[in-house]
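Entry 14. Structure prediction run on the chain below.
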Amino acid sequence: MTQSGWIILDKDSGLFSRTAGGRIARMLGMKKYGHIGTLDPMATGVLPIAIGDATKMIPFIEDANPHIKEYLFSCKFGFETDTLDITGREINRNDIILTDKQIITALPDFIGKISQTPPMYSAVHVNGARAHELARHNKIVEIPPRNVEIFELEYLGVQDGSWHFRMRCSTGTYVRSVARDIAKKYGAYATVDMIRRTSANGFDIKSAVKLDFLENLFNNSASIDENLMPVDFGLGDIPVLNLSDKDAEFYKNGGFITVAAGDGMYRVYNNDLFIGIGVVHGGNLRPKRTI
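Output returned:
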């Protein structure tokens, strides 16, 4: 039986986001899947996977929820790789190690709206191609800086030879660039050795499950249904309209419905069954995306 919905994945390191989505989709017997936000292969943590009709909701969830993500990350000082993380090739070294005082003094400069240059190995588009694709073909291009916002940046101390941080930031902020730029203030180099996303667009790590756990259930013929969130999961900030059976059928076929509601976007239901996203204008509800 094919199913649609959301799996809130706690992605493991070494796994591409797209690969993780594909493995979950196959377990659920679905060909169509997607995800909100991309995690670097080395990174772990929250990766919302949309299955089937849930893919239609991705843009609305991104609009409905604050574009805020939270990360735990750590880095090592004294050297830098071409990817700005430990999966890359070392390209710079000077063995300068930042003190706790230097780090704490630097952090306020990175809180608020800042300009940040993404890493060369990133998903940023440059001249119609992904930056990481150009980098892997030894094509060096200049990536323009972008404006991002960091809401919180906290230094958590040193553990096992790595310097640990927690950050809440806007979508589009690169953890690797933050570590690089903190070090750069003191003429040092930094390489990230751990990234863990704990929250993304309203999805939290507390709701996340491991891929190994799901595959173990599947391989033992157990159901993974209880880990599949409904298609409308994550749309909570969008107001609701309920339609009668007759109006719902007309609406799903592209018809406009007269409603007593103000202008704006709505989650549309028929007897508590989610049937899509609609837009009200001048008292008329028209379909935006139907399920």
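Residues 17-27 form the longest helix (11 residues).
Filed with the rest of this week's runs.
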